[in-house]
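Below is just one:
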Amino acid sequence: MVGDVYRRDTIDATHFPVFHQLEGVRLFNSQQLFSKCEGASADLTLFEVGDETKDKQSCHTLETSKLLEFNLKQTIEDCIKDIFGKEAECKWVDAYFPFTHPSYELEIKYNDEWIEMLGCGILRQEILNQAGACDQVAWAFGLGLERLAMKLFNIPDIRYMWTEDESFLAQFRCHSDFKSIKFKPIVSKQPALVNDVAFWVPTDFTPNDFYDLVRSVDDGLVQTITLIDQFTHSSGKQSHCYRLFYRHVSRALTQAQVNEVHGKIKRAAVKHLNVEGRWGGESTCSN
């Protein structure tokens, strides 16, 4: 199943507050899970009354959990290697998700950095029980399609996924095999224009409040935001200073264009986030 996901997140080249996710679930009954086990497989059972550990849920036997984990990881790895080739670098990381246990993340090497590609794990048995599948167990995964496409076609910036620029869209039409697509970057080679903004924040403020606001008014021009400084005044007031990197995905920007958007962001922050501007401490530069 594929659907839209809305999530408060940082702002950089690989994160966006809206993305598309593919969800998958595979169910097993006792015969399906244990059929390939050597030896006395008839003695193996899916369930037990036990304790939850890092390796299993309280209602699952250790054999159930380990076989599900093996099948899940093998299936995902085979899929990734089929898409990206056998040379693709990937690794598994233990994780936490509320609907699975144990849980894992698969990371793929992208531009010399490890980037999370998907989350997965053994589906919580309570979910299956509520769905009427009390005699079955399952694994599940969620795969972000934008990150998959970025890795597959070496797309440098997630904002491309929302552009209507024909020079980008035309590269993905009329291909019978997606593996034949050779993406040609159209990102501007001009340096990013960098503006800082500082303000006093209310006690209930979080950085994600500011990130959400920027994405609502920036016209897609902000590539990255970094919290570069924060301190608490002797009066108890807390200050945040953010550095905003402005770069269009396909054309150069002028400082005047950036200043206009930057002004919109400052005014919106004061109006909607109840912050107090410290505009005298800002700087403007190129990077």
